[in-house]
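Researcher: Last one for today. Full complex below.
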Amino acid sequence: MNETSDVVVLRLGHRPGRDDRMTTHVGLTARALGADRVIFPDNAGGSLETVEDITDRFGGPFEAELTDSPKAIIRNWEGRIVHLTMYGERVQDVEDDVRGAHRGGEPLLLVVGSEKVSFDVYEEADWNVGVTNQPHSEVAGLAVFLDRLFEGEELEGEWEDADRRVIPMETGKRVEPADDADDQ
Amino acid sequence: MNETSDVVVLRLGHRPGRDDRMTTHVGLTARALGADRVIFPDNAGGSLETVEDITDRFGGPFEAELTDSPKAIIRNWEGRIVHLTMYGERVQDVEDDVRGAHRGGEPLLLVVGSEKVSFDVYEEADWNVGVTNQPHSEVAGLAVFLDRLFEGEELEGEWEDADRRVIPMETGKRVEPADDADDQ
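Model: Here's the assembly. Have a good evening.
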């Protein structure tokens, strides 16, 4: 998604142990589905390592980082903020507006909560968006939101500096060295 | 999705403790995004309880059940089988075929693995499908696949026998008793 403004995913809240895999999956989903960067709380170092390891092996560009103040990231964000929440407006009603802002040059911060999100996040967000108003999964909500934001173009992206590449197959598994792996 | 053939999600493999939340999120995502039923391995009773509890409170129809033989579910399935895997064909290349089969009356079994999936699953599947050929999250893959299968119609569904309903809001949270809660 290099030709457009940044899309950054901010994971809000992380309980070590209990949330490890969900937080990691938020980061890997952000990477696979076209975001440019993920920001984790600073107690999620294990998730950071996993995402960086996947990016090293399967390619980028994608950045992962930690923050000791997610609230400051939100407060100081220069662009638009989308907070994904089951209490928000319906994604099918607001996605055109969000996409228009992004394509118009606004960097997007996508805020993905875990447990209870404080009210100021709802207020700071330009859009509170529900991928359904049903309880399900922050990973699922993020995935559908990104696929709709990019209208499927994220599936066509090329990966740079990968050392391996999965070849789509009708049956079975095929992994090959990436063309550019020789240059490493 | 009552007017069409069933879409059933089969969670393959579950390691108690480690996979609890992922398995629960597979079930909740299946429910929220238009599948009719989820089948968990029989060691995932906690996930079954959570999904049933959410269905009791937020509505259905949606069924959750356990099986002691996921392989038998696959072997005996009358309809088509989609196995979601990062090694599969690209979702954007095969989704029309899958949708066509489903709309033509074929019940769909969507197989969602956790760790290593045995080769016979790849062989039994009518389609092995990758929502990207990148490592990310089985929950994200399932979510995008369902949203594409139903072309967003799953977001318009009505929920029956709910006792509460979340009202989409620009800011804040609003939960109301469901209209049909009086009948309970």
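Chain B touches chain A through 55 residues (CB under 8 Å). The beta strands of chain B are 7-12, 37-41, 63-67, 80-90, 108-113, 127-130, 164-166, 175-177.
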